[in-house]
Amino acid sequence: MSTTNPNALTGNELLEKVRALGSLPKEEKARECGYYTVTKNGVERVNMMKFLNALIDAEGIELDSKQPSNGRGGRSASYRISVQSNGNLLIGAAYTKQMGLTPGDEFEISLGRKHIHLKQVGAAEEEL
């Protein structure tokens, strides 16, 4: 079992201390800022992950994206796609979800000079 130093610096205090420590190795900076534990045998261990996470938080960098309400991640639609190396165009799930499409939905494809138009099969009958 180990105990964590309750005096570990955070926020602006952490940033100022790290700047003041200048050219010291990062492990020593972490130790000086309080990011170490002492085991029951008296061995001191530097906790680099807690130190680096505290630095990220102090800088105000948001690494965790906001999760949608259903708890699932994923990409958001950028409305741009590229031709893949095998010549395919992939329309991602972000678009099909936004359109409310389900597996098995069919489309007619009509090609223009530099565009593709998709018309859902059966869509004209449903609109009437």
UniProtKB/TrEMBL annotation:
Record bears the keyword Methyltransferase: no
SpoVT-AbrB domain: residues covered: 78-123
Protein name (record): AbrB family transcriptional regulator
Organism expressing this protein natively: Phormidium yuhuli AB48
UniProt keyword terms in alphabetical order: DNA-binding
Xref: InterPro entries: AbrB-like, SpoVT-AbrB_dom
